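Q: Hi! Curious about what Adenosine 3'-phospho 5'-phosphosulfate transporter 1 looks like structurally. Here's the sequence.
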Amino acid sequence: MPSFSWRVWPALVSLLLPSTVAAEESSLLEGWHDVWLFRFLVNMLGYSTIIIPGYLLISYFKRTNYLETGSGICYPVIRTCVFGNEAKTGLLDDVSAAPRNEGDSGSSVRQAIKLIFCAAGLQASYLTWGVLQERVMTRSYGATTPEDQGEKFKDSQFLVFMNRILALTVSGLWCILFKQPRHGAPMYKYSFASLSNILSSWCQYEALKYISFPTQVLAKASKVIPVMLMGKIVSRKSYEYWEYFTAVLISVGVSMFLLSSTTSKHPSTVTTFSGIVILVGYIVFDSFTSNWQDNLFKYKMSSVQMMFGVNLFSCLFTVGSLLEQGAFFDSLAFMTRHSEFAFHAVLLSVCSACGQLFIFYTINQFGAAVFTIIMTLRQAIAILLSCFLYGHAVTIVGGFGVAVVFLALFLRVYARSRMKSGRRSAQPIAQKV
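A: Let's find out. The predicted structure is below.
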């Protein structure tokens, strides 16, 4: 089914059925195309045409012990993709620690300039990305008069592909230009994080058709709750009491905001429910991605290598699914019809790729705590910016809920930094004893 374009089905119906029935069936099929669950299932069907053959090939190579018996031109490629280098040691400490040490030895003025540069880069990249994301998914293109409704872009998967292809290019160039650890992970293991990352990004774009951007930002802020659940399930992690306390605070704040939101923009309860379901899907998929990537880091890879591996499979999955559905060329045709959309899509991808590089650089120079504070401030500014640009109404109770969420996020940062500083101060005492 996914190998046919959406326009093929109405044509087949018109040939096989009388004109009246054909018109009804054609409109019904077009209606199904606008249902998000149907598009999600068709996307999954497209991914399965790549995943299932890949799974069968990997199982065959492992079952036949190809690592010991294989040879020929394809042997290095198959070994890298299926078996990897099982030695889980590398140059990661040398690669990642060098910039951090250089930053620590610099003057306070130099560090302040670096911090301003990182904060400005993160804010500019992700604030622009958020504004463009809402513009592309909620507004029409090509409207020449107020009465003209224009044309809306509907294919979230194409935007995911655009983001991933540029991120793949940037991370690939980074790996070529700068020294990286020796790669040891089997390449196919990136596909798990890649698939969940594609699905979470698709849900993120698709949700904006049903909910407001501030609601989406708050839902993303509350993903710490399913991340903790996934951490216990996937990685068997344990958490401190303050982590559970702040998770409860976040859920209370998000609930206050959602329950107090006005329904003028989305009056249909079905539509609102669809938005919540898609957001839950985003949070679940994104939580799995982060925990799976944590497990992959046991191979001592750098963050840029992780970025390259995940985006490589993301491009493979998305371009395959888009071509099978016939949506790839439809999206390109939309870009040619609307140059403004083409500019927005490219800029969206540039902001996403640059933002990822700023993330790596900021964490290397200042640590995860400073990075979390910057990104938390970015989320708060993004909500205010969206309300200002697109006219989202926030009630007093909803505003209080937003304040509770960000208070909980800052409490998490503060408690984590105190805990780490306590561990550092305890280490010299233990050595003296």
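A: A fun detail: Residues 148 and 402 are 36 Å apart (CA to CA).
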